[in-house]
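Title: Comparing notes on inverse folding

I've been comparing how different people in this forum approach sequence design from structure. To keep things fair, I'm posting one structure and asking everyone to reply with a full sequence. Here's the target:
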């Protein structure tokens, strides 16, 4: 059984804070199992967006992990990231949106291997 999304998000925000990175929930989704989208604003009107990795990349021996993939290899204009997140919420209102701000682009996420 996977950790509740609300607990994972709280722990993620604490991890960000411990490194001096501001983070906040901009949309609270389903407590139990909502998908999590992470926006990292780089403070120059660009941002990086991390979305849940496809189920095909998960290792059956570690079913509790939450893995993410970057939407693009390079930061995108922040308004494009915001528009993508609006579309995601129209499709899945139970999703969580977490926004952080870090000039260095640190995300503290486990990324899926390609």
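Reply #1:
Here's my take.
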């Amino acid at each position: 059984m996977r950790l509740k999304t609300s607990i994972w998000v709280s722990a993620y925000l604490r991890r960000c804070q411990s490194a001096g990175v501001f983070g906040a929930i901009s949309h609270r989704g389903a407590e139990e199992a909502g998908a999590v989208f992470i926006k990292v604003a780089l403070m120059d009107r660009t941002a990086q967006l991390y979305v849940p990795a496809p189920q095909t990349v998960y290792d059956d021996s570690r079913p509790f992990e939450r893995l993410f993939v970057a939407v693009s290899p390079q930061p995108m204009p922040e308004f494009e990231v915001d528009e993508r997140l609006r579309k995601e919420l129209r499709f899945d209102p139970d999703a969580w949106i977490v926004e952080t701000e870090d000039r260095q682009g640190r995300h503290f996420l486990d990324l899926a291997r390609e």
